[in-house]
Design goal:
This protein has about 650 residues and is an alpha+beta fold. It is built from 14 helices and 29 strands. A hairpin with a 5-residue loop joins strand 27 and strand 28. It starts with a strand and ends with a strand. About 5% of the residues have low confidence.
C-alpha cells in the first residue's frame, strides 16, 4: 500500500496512524505539489453501501467547512474497493499524547485549547454537522498550541453486524469514556452531545483522568447515564471556580441543562477568572456564613423596615421607568435588526449563484462561460473516455446547486479513449504540468514562451503533441508558457474558433493573418458534425503573423445517447422498509442515480436513467435496517441504442 498512487495523483509515502475504522497515510499530491494526509477506510467497512453513502455524504459536507480549528478536507474518492479522504497534513501531535505526558495542564492552557475546539464545533454545528466523537485522540495540536479537530464524517454510523459486543461498539463508534448519556442510551443526539464530550475532554486536561472509568464499556456507559460526576477541583484544587463551573454545566446529564450551543460555552471560556480557585471560593462562602451580623434590637428592626419600604417604593418607580424605556429601546432595536437582517439576506442572495450545466463543453470554453456567473473551474482528474479530449464529462457540484460567487467547480475532463493519450495541459503552471506528465509516464520536453493577452502569465498556452494524441511511455511533451501581454509589439490575437464551422474557422484564420496547418477529425456526442471541437493555440493568445494553427473537427455521432427506463417492483423486498439505491457504472466511474426510502407495499416505480456508454451497468439494491443488502436487479444498458438487457 505504501507505494500506491491513488487517482493518478496521491502518492502514499508512509503510515502515520490508525484507528478502529481507518488507516492514515502521509502522501504527496503530485498535481498540487503538496503533502497531505489520506485516511483510508478499513476493508470491513466497504461492504455496507448505506455506510459508504453516509461516509461520502458526510465527508463532502465536511469538505465544505473552512475553519482554522478544523482539519481541512480536500477531496473524497474511491479507487477499486478503496474509499479514502484527502485531508490537510497537520504537523503536530494528538491532544491525548499531551495529556498523557503533561497532565494536569495549566488551567489557562486548558481553557485556551478548549475554546479553540468549541469554535470549531460552533462552525460545524452551523453547517448542521454533529461530530459525535469529540475526544483528545481526534484533536491535533501544533507547536504553536493551535488545536485542530478532525474525523468529521468518519465515526458517524455504527454497522449493526459489527456490534455484537460493547467492546466492538466502542471500537466502531469511538471511545465510550467521552460519550454523552444520550449516546450511551442510543437516543437523540444533537450539538449539545458534542458539548458534553468537550466538557469531558476539559475535565481530563485539568485532572489527568476521565471522570468515569470501568472494566467494560457497558459499565462506563451506565456511569455516564446514572452516576454524578466528581467535581474536578477535588482532584486538582488549583482549578479556577469559573472553569469548574464550565465543566459541570457542559457535562450535565440532561441536554436541556447544558450550554444551548458552543457559542455560549465560548463566551464563558472567554471570561474565566484564573486568580480565584474553586477552593478559595468555598472558603469565602464559608467565612461569609460565620461572619453573620448579630441579632438586632426592636427599635433597629422598625427603622430597618421603614427604610426598606421607602427603598422598595423607589425601586418600584425606577423599575417602571426602566421598563418603559426598555420597551421603547426594544422596539427601536427590533426595527433596526429586522432591517439589518433583510439587508444581510439581500447581500447573501446577491453573492449566491446557481451552478450552470457545463458537461459536454470544452474545458477552455467552460472557463470563459463561467466567468459571466462569477464562478471558476478546476480540473480534478483527466479520465479515459470516448468524448473528445478536453471535454468535461462530470462536474461537482451538480447543475442547479447554490454556491457563492467565486466558487470553483471541480470537473473531470476527457483525455481520449486511450491510456496512452497525452493529457490537457492548457491553463496549468509548468510545475503542475510536470507532475501530471510524470504521473502518467510522460516527460516534460522543451519549454518556450509566448505573449498572450488572455492567458495568465506563467500558465500554459499550448502543447505539442496536442491533448489526446497517442504517445509512448517516456515520450516528451513540449509546452509554451504565457509571458503575459506584450505592450511593445503588434502581435496577432488568435480568434476563438471552437464552435464554428470549418468554413467559418478557415475565413477567421485568413482574416487574422494566420495559416491553417492541418485539420483532424474526431467523433463527438456534444459537438455537431462539421464544427470545431478544439484549436491548437488558445483563443486570445498573441502570436506572430503567419503562425500555423491546427484544428480538430467533429464527425458527430450516428446516434445520440438516449435515456432508458427501468421498473422496480418493491414487492420483491424481504423486509417491510428499506432504502433503494440505483447505481450506474460507466468508464468514468460508478455513481448513485437514485436513492430513496421505500416500503414493501409501495407501488412499482419507473426510474429514468441517462448515460453515454454502450455497455453500461445498472444495479438496484435494497438495503434493510437489519444491515442486510439485496441486489434485486442487474442490467446492461446501451445508451446509444436506448436498449436494456
Amino acid at each position: 500500500m505504501a507505494t500506491r498512487v491513488l487517482a493518478g495523483r496521491y502518492e502514499l509515502i508512509e503510515k502515520i496512524g490508525e484507528g478502529g475504522m481507518a488507516v492514515v497515510f502521509r502522501a504527496r499530491d503530485r498535481l498540487l505539489s503538496r503533502n497531505v494526509a489520506i485516511k483510508i477506510l478499513r476493508p470491513e467497512f466497504t461492504k455496507d453501501m448505506m455506510f459508504i453513502e453516509s461516509f461520502r455524504r458526510e465527508s463532502q459536507l465536511a469538505a465544505s467547512i473552512v475553519d482554522p480549528n478544523i482539519v481541512n478536507v480536500y477531496d473524497v474518492g474511491k479507487e477499486g474497493n478503496i474509499y479514502y479522504i484527502v485531508m490537510e497534513l497537520v504537523e503536530g501531535e494528538p491532544l491525548s499524547e499531551i495529556i498523557k505526558r503533561e497532565a494536569p495542564l495549566d488551567p489557562k492552557r486548558a481553557a485556551f485549547l478548549t475554546r479553540q475546539i468549541a469554535m470549531a464545533l460552533s462552525t460545524a454545528h452551523k453547517h448542521q454537522l454533529i461530530h459525535r466523537d469529540v475526544k483528545p485522540h481526534n484533536v491535533l495540536v501544533t507547536s504553536g498550541d493551535v488545536a485542530k479537530i478532525s474525523d468529521f464524517g468518519i465515526a458517524m454510523k455504527q454497522n449493526p453486524e459489527e456490534a455484537d459486543t460493547a467492546e466492538k461498539k466502542a471500537t466502531v463508534m469511538g471511545s465510550i469514556h467521552y460519550f454523552s448519556p444520550e449516546q450511551a442510551r442510543g437516543a437523540y443526539v444533537d450539538e449539545r452531545s458534542d458539548i458534553y464530550s468537550l466538557g469531558i475532554v476539559l475535565y481530563e486536561m485539568l485532572t489527568g483522568q476521565v471522570p468515569f472509568d470501568g472494566e467494560t464499556a457497558v459499565e462506563v456507559a451506565l456511569k455516564h447515564m446514572n452516576e454524578p460526576m466528581v467535581p474536578p477541583s477535588r482532584l486538582n484544587p488549583n482549578i479556577p471556580s469559573d472553569l469548574e463551573h464550565i465543566v459541570m454545566k457542559a457535562t450535565a446529564k440532561l441536554q436541556k441543562d447544558r450550554y444551548k450551543n458552543a457559542d455560549e460555552m465560548i463566551t464563558d471560556l472567554s471570561f474565566v477568572k484564573f486568580s480565584r480557585t474553586a477552593d478559595q471560593k468555598k472558603a469565602e462562602d464559608k467565612k461569609t456564613g460565620e461572619d453573620a451580623a448579630p441579632e438586632e434590637t426592636p427599635e433597629e428592626r422598625k427603622a430597618r423596615i421603614r427604610a426598606e419600604r421607602i427603598a422598595a417604593k423607589r425601586r418600584k418607580y425606577i423599575k417602571m421607568g426602566v421598563a418603559a424605556l426598555a420597551v421603547i429601546i426594544a422596539i427601536v432595536v427590533i426595527v433596526l435588526l429586522s432591517k439589518a437582517a433583510e439587508r444581510r439576506k439581500q447581500e447573501e442572495r446577491e453573492k449566491q449563484r446557481s451552478t450552470p450545466y457545463i458537461i459536454g463543453m470544452v474545458y477552455a470554453d467552460a472557463v470563459e462561460y463561467l466567468k459571466q456567473y462569477g464562478l471558476g473551474a478546476e480540473i480534478e482528474n483527466q479520465l479515459v473516455s470516448k468524448e473528445p479530449v478536453g471535454t468535461i464529462i462530470s462536474q461537482i457540484p451538480e447543475e442547479g446547486t447554490t454556491v457563492k460567487v467565486g466558487h470553483i467547480i471541480k470537473v473531470n475532463v476527457s483525455r481520449g479513449d486511450s491510456e496512452d493519450g497525452v493529457p490537457t495541459l492548457a491553463g496549468k503552471t509548468q510545475e503542475d504540468a510536470q507532475h501530471t506528465l510524470e504521473g502518467l509516464g510522460f516527460v516534460l520536453g522543451e519549454v518556450s514562451g509566448a505573449y498572450s493577452s488572455t492567458v495568465e502569465r506563467g500558465r500554459i498556452i499550448s502543447q505539442e503533441p496536442a491533448a489526446g494524441a497517442k504517445l509512448e511511455k517516456g515520450g516528451k511533451v513540449d509546452i509554451v508558457i504565457s509571458l503575459g501581454p506584450d505592450e511593445s509589439s503588434e502581435l496577432i490575437v488568435v480568434p476563438r474558433l471552437t464552435g464554428k464551422t470549418l468554413e467559418d474557422a478557415q475565413k477567421a484564420i485568413e482574416e487574422a493573418g494566420l495559416v491553417l496547418e492541418k485539420t483532424t477529425e474526431q467523433e463527438s456526442s456534444s459537438v455537431d458534425k462539421g464544427y470545431i471541437i478544439s484549436q491548437s493555440i488558445a483563443a486570445g493568445s498573441q502570436v506572430e503573423k503567419e503562425t500555423k494553427i491546427s484544428l480538430v473537427v467533429s464527425t458527430g455521432y450516428a446516434v445520440n445517447p438516449r435515456p432508458v427506463e427501468i421498473t422496480i417492483d418493491y414487492s420483491k423486498a424481504t423486509e417491510d422498509s428499506f432504502q433503494v439505491t440505483v447505481t450506474l457504472s460507466e468508464p468514468g466511474g460508478t455513481s448513485n442515480v437514485f436513492v430513496q426510502q421505500r416500503t414493501k407495499t409501495s407501488a412499482a416505480e419507473k426510474v429514468k436513467i441517462t448515460g453515454t456508454g454502450e455497455s453500461s451497468k445498472v444495479k438496484v439494491f435494497f438495503a434493510y435496517p437489519s444491515g442486510k443488502i439485496d441486489t434485486v436487479y442487474e442490467y446492461t444498458v446501451n445508451f446509444r441504442a436506448g436498449t436494456v438487457q
